[in-house]
Specification:
With 71 residues, the protein is an alpha+beta fold. It contains five helices and two strands. It is globular and about 35 Å long. The chain starts with a helix and ends with a helix.
């Protein structure tokens, strides 16, 4: 992605409810009522059904495919 190349080597902070934007992150922080309730990796985040429900985020197709080992 050309836009991501502009930020290579820089720290980015994104606020999103879009699972596709989370997939390639190095780290996922989840805020709830102004407090950090989770500090994890995307892989662990997408395995936590309770956290996904709380955040109202659906797993992206790419994550589901990887879990089911689709080709």
């Amino acid at each position: 992605n050309k836009s991501l190349e502009l930020f290579k080597g820089m720290t980015q902070l994104r606020v999103t409810h879009n699972g596709n934007e989370i997939v390639n992150a190095d780290r996922v922080l989840v805020l709830h009522n102004g407090k950090i309730i989770s500090d994890t990796t995307p892989a662990k985040f997408f395995k936590d059904a309770k956290l996904l429900k709380l955040c109202r985020i659906d797993k992206p197709i790419s994550v589901i495919a990887k879990e089911k080992k689709w080709k």
